[in-house]
Structures
1.
Amino acid sequence: MKIIFAGTPHFAEKALQALLDQQANVVAVLTQPDRPAGRGMQLKPSPVKQLALQYGLTVLQPQSLKDADIQQQLAAYRADVMVVAAYGLILPQAVLQTPRLGCLNIHASLLPRWRGAAPVQRAILAGDAETGVTIMQMDAGLDTGAMLLKKTCAIEDKDSAATLHDKLAVLGAEAVTAALPLLEQGRLRAMSQDNALATYAAKLNKDEARLDWTQDAVHLDRAVRGYNPFPGASAQINDTLIRIWQASLREGVSGEPGAVLAVEKNALLVACGNGALSLEILQRPNAKALPAAQFLQGFQIRAGDRFESR
């Protein structure tokens, strides 16, 4: 089976590595153009490109797939299937129809729940008990294609978007390597999505990650976890915007929303609209993220100080 692989970040890298470990016939790899990164803003290849070059694979990095030249180039490979994982470019109908068996997407949710750009984060923010990956036959819609295979994953109480992402990346790699031989054998049953059950995982933005302390502690705990690592939950205190990277719920405590109830050895205890949140890892602008004890050595916060609500 000849495979074109399309993906860009670490999530996709896991899937490509799994295919290569099974000695799959990957005839070409599509990935996003190199982007500036780091302090020097030098061009950096994507994780998928780095892996592909290690294996001597052909790498294509078009700015768009709408041009006839790249479409003809892809068609020339006469691929049986294209595997797509967090690629980042829209696949026009001409590209979707190019492989003999179509294009399969590894989507990081249990479709039709959380179609869209940020399914991992939205699942945590919504308080979902589980999520997973769906292998989907791509069509012209946004994550609307027929479902071919699913694998589920529990969302643990301490899962952040970072830890859940890593679990789903492994699960996605397992799912696609299981799906491809079944696809080739005609043993996958396509199931249409129920559009009435669909939810949309909108792209994240920095403004929404500002904490509103009038909300209950359960909601804010999800926010801290769901916005880690991007864009990072934040709140302002003493005219400084602080990022909060780790927190935990504290039962049986209450106070005015945003008020610092106690400065403890390893945490700041802050009142919410209902309950309280124990802030454990914090970060000042242009500084490193630190455990609360170390953070407070360089930034003074006292009981009675107050975080602003957005």
2.
Amino acid sequence: MMIKIDTSKWKPFKIDDLFYKLELKCLKKEFNKSFDVSEIRTEEFDLPLVNAKHFNNGIMYYGRSSDFESDEMTIDIVCDGAASTGDVYAQPQRTGVLYNAYLVKPKFVCNSECLLHYFAIVIEKCVKDHFGYDEKCTWDKVKKETIMLPVDSNGEPDWKYMENYMKTIEDKVCKSLSMLEKVCK
């Protein structure tokens, strides 16, 4: 049974007020996809690269850390892909951009993977149905979108509530998987 959340006191926030787009580039002067990325993570190809990927957390390739600018604690938004346009993924680990996607970073201090996951879900819920292959999910459009968030007594985003909510969900999933594992043995 799913408990209904009371959102009557939540408040709208423009995505642009909470996040900014990172301008990460490939540092190689002559990039050759056949030689400069790998579909498998290795010691040499150690940096996850976001792309128009529907699944696998938006990561299709790995590059050399020395070849790509990167950042951590970001959110990946797929801007162009047949099925993946509007997919949004939390990227807590250091990540770079190949193409057809971009990374946004919180304007607020975010040291919590739970908060990152919360925002990835909320942003995807907001943008996934608005954009598609014909209507690209570009930052110029996404940043104008509004998301509803729980607020504290000062009318500011309630970071603690969002983090605790995600921790509770993660705990429930872990317990369910543990029970499933016991049943399947």
3.
Amino acid sequence: MIDPRRALPSVHWLLEQEEMVPLVRDLGREVVVAAARTVLNQIRDGGASSSGADHQAVACLVVAELRGERPHLRPVINATGILLHTGLGRAPLGPWVWESILSLGKGYSNLEFDLESGERSERGAAVAELLREITGAEAAAIVNNNAGATLLTLRALAAGREVIVSRGQLVEIGGSYRLPDVFLASGAKLVEVGTTNKTRLKDYERAIGPATAALLRVHTSNYQVVGFTEEVSIAEMAELAAALGVLCIDDIGSGALTPDLPPGLRGEPSIQASFQGGAKLVLASGDKLLGGPQCGLILGEARLISTIKADPMMRALRVDKLTLCALEAVLRLVRSPSLARSRIMLWRLLGTERAELRARARSILEQLGARLGLSATVVETEAQIGGGSVPSQRLPSVGIQLECAGGGPLGSEAGLAKALRTGPVPVVPRVHDGHVWLDLKAVFEYEDKEIVHALDRLFPIPGDWSDLRED
């Protein structure tokens, strides 16, 4: 009897197969050849379950071997109902932004070069000018994120001196960002005043002394203290700071520009309000509520910004050309709020009405039709902004509640959620209350067809119900 391993296909034959052509194009010939040789060697050694005579089966094994070569960072459909989902990259950048990135990133750019004079220029100067125009600040600096903005500001302006903060504002954001630790790294001395739920102006006044450099307000963007509470406004803090010759710094965190930009928010501090209140410096995120790329904005008096930019840490925290390009594209949209509401993708999602989402949910189920083993219901939901922003505000939304019957890996909500996440186009749902939910608030309309395809792949057999179910 002839050993079937002697009839293995050649590497050359495998590379000529139709399914290999896009893999060679995308991954390179060397990578595909290496995978083919790995599979052939496994079959020869008895470690792969395929008959050597079945050439097409061997080709399928090579394709499976190459699945691990896909980029780790991949586009996903965010059906969680959390618009600024940190795990999913927070603010999405729309076509008006990534077209600018593509144009700039494919070649060289005048990142630090003045085309008019032919001399070297300052990185980010044009973006800083846009920030001055939009916010009214005298000057601006851009760093890698808002935590970096806080660290650099404290280091440059208060190293070795005291900065006074309310105990109710000693935030922790994420697993490794704690405000006391940032103080420690900056060299500034943290002075806590007041209590967790009540801090008064006299608490700040009593704590100010010869070593005081600044009063710092930190927006508690990912939690709220409610009930028997009291806090000091930025205007009161700024007035006290000016009277006693210290700085007033406002770390608003999530980055709202004005009380109505982005639209639809309630009670969120804004850059505009901080300056109107008298803050000398405002720190904010460039992503989150601004809807741009991840970066930190330091805005305020020119003399203070100059000191911050002169600190050696500035170079370590500066942003790259693609971040500056994306931020500039977003800021140019912001100058026209009517355009921004439709072209900054986060603002667009915030403005999507429940009636529109309901119509899209119905359309998805109508396209899918009845499927054996799947029960799908249109339901009203409440979405969240997320990303450590506006923790108490819920957004009216509509979703699709999924239930699957029968055994196997899809017989539980965890199995169905995993199957959606690991499909050709990953769909990330929310699992809650024993169901899988596809919340449409953070799903773009053009992604609806991918949701239909994902469910069609998992439930390919027609079912026995025909009526659209709606809660």
